[in-house]
Automatic annotation (TrEMBL):
This is Cof-type HAD-IIB family hydrolase. GO terms for molecular function: magnesium ion binding; phosphatase activity. The lineage of its organism: Bacteria, Pseudomonadati, Bacteroidota, Bacteroidia, Bacteroidales. Pfam families: Hydrolase_3 (PF08282). Transmembrane segments: none annotated. It comes from Dysgonomonas macrotermitis.
Length: 262
C-alpha cells in the first residue's frame, strides 16, 4: 500500500523506537531510519521525555526534537524553536499542596531535572525507562527557574481530583497508570509538531508519525499518516491509520515497507 511520500516522520521513543524489554533500538529500526535519511526524508523525535534524557538513541541522527510532550522543541543542533513553561502560579499551588498531601514529582527544567522524593512507584518507572539517578531536592526548588514539565506520580483518580485544584493552567498527558505528565495548557505533541513544521517549512499533508502511548494520541490524530505500534494501548490503535507489529518485532521497519516508503 503506497501513500504520498512524507517529508517528515515523527517517532515516539519509549515503546516505539526503544524497546521496554531491551532498552535498545532494534537493528531493523536503525536500518529503516538510515534509509529514510538517504531518501531525504527528515526524521524527528516526538517524546514525553526531556531532551536531557534522550541519550538512549544510540548514534542515530535526528533533524529535530519535540520533547516534554511538545513543550520544548529544538533543532538537531539544539537551537530552541519553541518553549512553554508551567505557570508560576501553578507551581506555587503545587508547593503548598505538597505540604499537606505529598506525592512524588519529577521537576523538569531546561538544563536539569530533580525529584522531591522516591517511593516504590518512582523506582518502578525509573527502572522501566532506564533513567539515570536523579537528585532529590525540596519542592521549593521548583520556584527557582522555569519548569517545563512535571512528572506527577498520581493514579487516574488522584489526577482527576488533584490537578484541577492545584494545576489549573496545565494539561495532563498520561501513558502509564503510575504517573502523568503535567505541562502548560495547550502543549501536546501536536503543538510541537506544528512548531517543527513551521520552522522547516513542511506541510502537514507531508507528515507521518509512530507512537504507542496515550500521550501520542494528539500526534497520531494530527499527522497525515499515523501508525500505532503492535504493543500500543487499544485507545491508541483506535485512532491510527495503521497498526504495525510490536517494537520488538520490527514494527517501524514493517510499517515503512507496508507503505512503500523504504
Amino acid at each position: 500500500m503506497g501513500i504520498k511520500q512524507p517529508k517528515a516522520i515523527f517517532f515516539d521513543i519509549d515503546g516505539t523506537l526503544v524497546s521496554f524489554k531491551t532498552h535498545q533500538i532494534p537493528e531493523s529500526t536503525i536500518h529503516a531510519i538510515d534509509e529514510l535519511r538517504k531518501k531525504g526524508i527528515k526524521v524527528f523525535i516526538a517524546t514525553g521525555r526531556s531532551r536531557l534524557v534522550t541519550d538512549n538513541l544510540g548514534d542515530i541522527e535526528f533533524d529535530g526534537y519535540v520533547t516534554v510532550n511538545g513543550g520544548y522543541c529544538t533543532t538537531e543542533k539544539g537551537e530552541v524553536i519553541y518553549k512553554n513553561a508551567v505557570p508560576q502560579e501553578d507551581l506555587k499551588a503545587l508547593v503548598e499542596y505538597q505540604k499537606k498531601e505529598a506525592f512524588p514529582c519529577i521537576f523538569v527544567r531546561e538544563h536539569d531535572m530533580f525529584l522531591n522524593f522516591v517511593n516504590e512507584d518512582v523506582e518502578t518507572i525509573l527502572k522501566l525507562l532506564d533513567f539515570p539517578t536523579l537528585p532529590i531536592k525540596d519542592n521549593e526548588e521548583a520556584l527557582n527557574g522555569e519548569i517545563l514539565q512535571l512528572v506527577a506520580f498520581l493514579n487516574k483518580d488522584e489526577e482527576e481530583r488533584i490537578m484541577p485544584e492545584i494545576l489549573p493552567g496545565c494539561d495532563s498527558a498520561r501513558w502509564h497508570p503510575l504517573f502523568t505528565d503535567a505541562l502548560a495548557r495547550g502543549n501536546s505533541k501536536q503543538t510541537g509538531i506544528d512548531q517543527i513544521l513551521k520552522y522547516y517549512n513542511i506541510d502537514l499533508s507531508e507528515t507521518m508519525a509512530f507512537g504507542d502511548g496515550g500521550n501520542d494520541i494528539p500526534m497520531l490524530k494530527h499527522v497525515a499518516t499515523s501508525v500505532a505500534m503492535g504493543n500500543a494501548e487499544d485507545e491508541v490503535k483506535a485512532v491510527a491509520d495503521y497498526v504495525t507489529t510490536a517494537v520488538d518485532d520490527d514494527g517501524i521497519f514493517n510499517a515503512l515497507r507496508h507503505f512503500g516508503i523504504i
